[in-house]
């Protein structure tokens, strides 16, 4: 990773956090926020590759988690891991010269699926020992609840990723990145 990649990751992470914080509208499902800002690291993953996209997402979700629920350990174990993995997959399968809309649609669906399964399983394990964000008491989740969290939050993000990212990537590539 060169200096340009680090700079893009940092700026992308800050943008992801800021847009995410502004656009979540207070909607949560078991502490997982409505998150249309997935378009930012998804676009970065397509344009600059897996590591840059994954790192920008990891930085952004950590900043945003600290600003909203303030639990750094939960963010590092669940939010950062799931975001890095999700957008790394997208960049690995559809980033750079490999990009096509078809590859992106498959990559983003797979990346978001894996990322949201990490969130569901991570929150399942977390909730056995600690309260979830925005909750006062310990409320252990069931496996069914964890899978529901994965599905609902996946469904919240997928339309933004599928509809908005391809035209943004096309426009940026056409403009010469």
Automatic annotation (TrEMBL):
**Keywords assigned:** Membrane, Transmembrane, Transmembrane helix
Which domain of life does this protein belong to?
Archaea
Database matches in InterPro entries = ECF_trnsprt_substrate-spec (IPR024529)
Query: Which residues span the membrane?
Result: 6-27, 39-63, 69-91, 103-129, 141-165
Write out the GO MF terms.
transmembrane transporter activity
Q: What is this protein called?
A: ECF transporter S component
Source organism per entry reads Candidatus Korarchaeum cryptofilum
User: Taxonomy-wise, where does this protein's organism fall, top ranks first?
Assistant: Archaea, Thermoproteota, Candidatus Korarchaeia, Candidatus Korarchaeales, Candidatus Korarchaeaceae
């Amino acid at each position: 990773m060169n200096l340009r990649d680090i700079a893009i990751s940092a700026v992308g992470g800050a943008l992801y956090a800021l847009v995410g914080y502004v656009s979540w509208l207070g909607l949560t499902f078991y502490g997982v926020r409505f998150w249309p800002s997935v378009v930012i690291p998804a676009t970065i993953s397509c344009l600059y590759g897996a590591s840059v996209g994954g790192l920008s997402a990891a930085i952004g979700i950590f900043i945003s988690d600290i600003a909203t629920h303030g639990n750094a350990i939960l963010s590092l174990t669940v939010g950062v891991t799931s975001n890095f993995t999700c957008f790394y997959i997208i960049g690995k399968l559809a980033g750079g010269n490999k990009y096509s809309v078809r590859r992106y649609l498959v990559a983003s669906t797979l990346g978001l699926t894996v990322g949201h399964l990490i969130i569901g399983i991570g929150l399942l394990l977390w909730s056995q020992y600690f309260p979830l964000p925005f909750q006062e008491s310990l409320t252990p989740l069931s496996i069914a609840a964890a899978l529901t969290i994965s599905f609902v939050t996946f469904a919240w993000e997928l339309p933004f990723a599928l509809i908005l990212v391809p035209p943004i990537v096309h426009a940026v590539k056409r403009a010469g990145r």
